[in-house]
Amino acid sequence: MSAAPLAILAAAVFGGADFLGGIATREAPVWRVTFLAHSVGAVLICLAWLFLGGDWTLGAVGWGVAGGFAGTGGLVLLLDALATGRFQLVSPLSAVTGAVVPVLFGLVVDDRPTTLGIVGLLLTPPAVWLLASGSGNGDEPFDKLPLVKAVAAGVGFGMFFIALDQTPEGAGVVPLVAARLSSVPFLGIVAMLSTGALLPARRRDAAMGSGALDILGNGLFLAATRTGSLAVIGALVALYPGSNAVLARTFLGERLLPLQRVGFGLSLLAAALLSI
């Protein structure tokens, strides 16, 4: 499978991971949810390494650890923002920010995309922003702090994607193993020191599912970077709020507004142009 389809599939998976994580953090401290999610991801990626392998080099481990802490910080901030903010605003805002960082980096150090690809890149920010348009009630006040956290989360995700792109060709899934094995102990300590309610049993499945989907999305992204441009892949992965919005509509009854439907259309067009 080529880079573009892998990136699009990663976007769909990331959207599902964020949706489940956001659901879980609405009833439990974000640190405990993230710890459980990352623990599940660590187990799964270690099992994957037994079958897929990879070289344990300094570059693979070093970039994996660096990216792991950046991504962990981003995930904690995003889940915290989702716990108090609107899914359809927080998720796209973090996606836009997360796309800008690797896209700009990729344009500087990587091959430039085609003319149509550049058009796709330009369509991506308005597409994901339109997905976030409105809340269903224009008079409803909202806290701006989750938006700040969403932007900071996007920066963390962007740095994580850049770190994965720097890993050696023969690293396989080793960078993801290093990322999870370095972040889980840190999260475990913070989770034990955090205060608040324990994670309810009915939300544990959501947190575990979030962790499984998150590590799968990371694996798909890593595979995409082996054959494609980071600028293009970063833009495609930024379309993950689309699947998040579909899940919110299906399971939470959140309606898509007209502008959000336009955003879906632009998302599909951007994906098609970036895939050429």
Give a structural overview.
The protein is mainly alpha-helical. It has one domain (3-275). It contains eleven helices and no strands. It has helices spanning 3-25, 30-52, 58-84, 87-109, 115-131, 145-165, 174-193, 201-225, 230-237, 241-251, 258-275. The longest helix is centred in the N-terminal third of the chain and has 27 residues, at 58-84. The model is unreliable at 135-139 (pLDDT under 50).
In short:
The protein is 78% helix and 0% strand.
Tally of strands: 0
Figure out the total of helices: 11
Mean pLDDT: 84
If you compute it from the alpha carbons, what radius of gyration comes out, rounded to the nearest whole angstrom? Answer: 18 Å
Low-confidence stretches: 135-139
Helical content band: over 70%
Count of domain modules: 1
Order of helices and strands: HHHHHHHHHHH
> How far apart are the first and last residues' alpha carbons, in Å?
14 Å
Broad shape? globular
The biggest sheet amounts to: none
Category by helix and strand content: mainly alpha
How much of the sequence lies in strands comes to under 5%
List keywords for this structure.
single chain; 276 residues; mainly alpha; 78% helix; globular
How do the strands and helices of this protein lay out in sequence?
Blueprint: H1 3-25, H2 30-52, H3 58-84, H4 87-109, H5 115-131, H6 145-165, H7 174-193, H8 201-225, H9 230-237, H10 241-251, H11 258-275
Helix pairs in contact: 1-3, 1-8, 1-9, 1-10, 2-7, 2-8, 3-6, 3-7, 4-5, 4-6, 4-9, 4-10, 5-9, 5-11
